[in-house]
Specification:
heterodimer, A: 155 residues, alpha/beta, Transcription Regulator spoIIAA, 2 domains, five-stranded mixed β-sheet, four-stranded antiparallel β-sheet, 5 helices, 32% strand, B: 325 residues, Rossmann fold, Heat Shock Protein 90, eleven-stranded mixed β-sheet, 20% strand, globular
Chain lengths: 155, 325
Amino acid sequence: MLLNVIKEQRNNTLLIRLIGAIDEDVQFESVVGLVPQEIIVSCREIPRINSIGVKAWMKYFQALRQKGVKFTFIECSTAIVEQFNLISNLISGGTVESIYVPFSCTKCKSELIGLFKCEDLKKSGFTLPSLTCSKCSGPVVFDDIPEEYFRFLQR
Amino acid sequence: MKDFVLLISKTPEDRTFVERAAQIAGIPVRVVDSIESAGKVFQAGEIPQAVFLDLPEERSYREFDQLVNAQSRQFQEALLSDRLHFLISQNIDECPYLIAGPYAGNILKRSRALEHGGEHYGRILQGTLSQRGPELLGTEFKNRGGVTREFVLGRTIEKQSAIEKVRDLFVEHGFLGRVAEVIATAADELLMNAMFDAPVDGAGHQIYSKVDRSTDLQLVGRHAVKMVVGFDGAYGAVSVVDSFGSLERTKLLKHVLKLYKDDTYHLGTEVAGAGIGLASVFQLGGSLFFFSEQRKKTEVIAFFKRAETFREYRGHFRFLTMQFR
C-alpha cells in the first residue's frame, strides 16, 4: 500500500494526512509538495513504518526544521508512537500534540484505540480514565506497558 | 562433547524453563547454583552441549570468564561456538558486558511466564544443535499440525504485496491487528536484508549496500529469496533464507542490539540501509533466530507469540539466538 497524502489548507497552516505504510517508496518532498511555515501532520492512518521509512521521515522533517518550518504531529497511530519510543530523535524537532492509546476490552477482547492529548496525559501522570468498549460496553484496559508506551513523553 | 545441558542458576523458574527446553531437545540437564560448582563440572573435562547461565551482573560475568579461561583451549573453543545461552531479566542495554564480551550470541529475556517458554525454546535449542539448520518452519511446524505458506520472490518490488499477504494471514489466524503489523514489518526488514544486504561478491564485499532500497532488482539464481511464514497455534513465525551466508556476528550484534531510545540516531549517507530494522523487530516483541552457513546460506526466523492482548504479547519471554557454521 503506497503512501497517500491528503492536504487541507487551514488559514496559514497546511494539514497533511498521511495514509498508508511508510517505507522505501515514500517520497515526502514530491507527495507533500511545497509547505508553508507551519504544518500539521496527521499520523492516524499509518499502520507501520519500516527502517527505510524511518530514515526518509527523519531526512524530510529534519530538512523542514532547518528551513524553519514549524510542524506538529497529531493523532499519532500506535505504530508511530512505538517508533517515537524506539528512536529518540524521530520527532525531529517537531511537537507531538496527540496520540492514540491502545485498549483491550476485558469482555469481548476487541482491540480499541482512544485519542489523547499529550499534555493531558502528562498532567494526569499517565493515568487513563475508566472507559467502556464501543462494541459490547464491557470495561476496557490500557493494552501496552505504560513505561514503554509513554516513554517518549517522559524524556 | 558430553550429552547434557548445564544450567547455572539459583532461580527455580530458570530450572523449570531449561528442564522443559532440554526435554524437548532430548538432552538431560544438570543444574548447579554457582560458577564455582560449574567449575567442578568443567574440571572433570565434561563439555556440555549447551550452557544456560544467569549472570545478573558484570562481576559474575567476569567470574565466569575467568573460569572459562582456566580451561583447555579445546574446551574454550567448544564453548565459544554458540553454546552459551544467557538468561537476563533486564533490558539488553542494561547489560552491556554480555554484548561486548566474547560469548555474545544467545540471549533470553525472562518474563513473568518464562516457564511456559521452555517448550518453544526447546525447539530452538534443537535447531542450534542440528547440523542441518533450524528447519523450524518447514517440517517442524507441519509435523505439529501448523500452517505454513511459502513465498518465492522474483523481483524486489514484489516485497510490498508479499508483506501485505503476511499481515492478512496473521489477522486471519487470530493475531491481534497490532501484532500482525509488527510481523509484517519484521517480514519487510528480513526481506530487505536478504535482498540488499546479503548479496556479496567473490571478495565478500556487499553488492547492493549503496543501492536505493526501492530499486527493482531481479532475484534470480543465487539472488533468489525465499520466505516461509508459519503458525502453530501458539507462535507465528517468518523465515527468510538467502544463498549467500554472508552474515557476520559482530555486525549483527551491533545492529540488533543497538538502541536509540536515548541515543541520537544519525542519518548515514554512506549506505542505503538504515541499520535499525532488526533492532526494531526485537524491541517490538519479536524473537530472532539467525542460522548462517558461511558462503552457503543464511536463514533468519522471527517468532511472535500469539496473545489475547498486546500487553501479554509484549510481556512474553523472547530471545536472540545466533548460530554460525
